Amino acid sequence: MSKSIRVEEDTHAALASLKGDDETFDDLLTRLLRERREDIRAGAGLWAGSDAPERAREKRREMKRGVDSQ
């Protein structure tokens, strides 16, 4: 079953500029979604084995303390 979606003309133009000559808009959107998922997966685990998660948590705590004291 197919669905129609409305987009503004500038959005359509931006999508059209990303679309390959042999791609449909459905192909394009499917490709963009797949690439986004792959990008997210590629970033998973980058901090494994480092102290980066704890440093990030500490920075967040510092920032919250700064906001709470205002």
UniProtKB/TrEMBL annotation:
Q: Which domain of life is it from?
A: Archaea
Among InterPro entries, the record links this protein to: Put_antitoxin
Q: Which UniProt keywords apply?
A: Toxin-antitoxin system
Q: Where is this region: Disordered?
A: 44-70
Q: Name one Pfam family in it.
A: VAPB_antitox
Give me the stretches of Basic and acidic residues compositional bias.
Answer: 52-70
Protein name, per record: Antitoxin VapB family protein
Which lineage ranks, top first, belong to the organism behind this chain? Archaea, Methanobacteriati, Methanobacteriota, Stenosarchaea group, Halobacteria
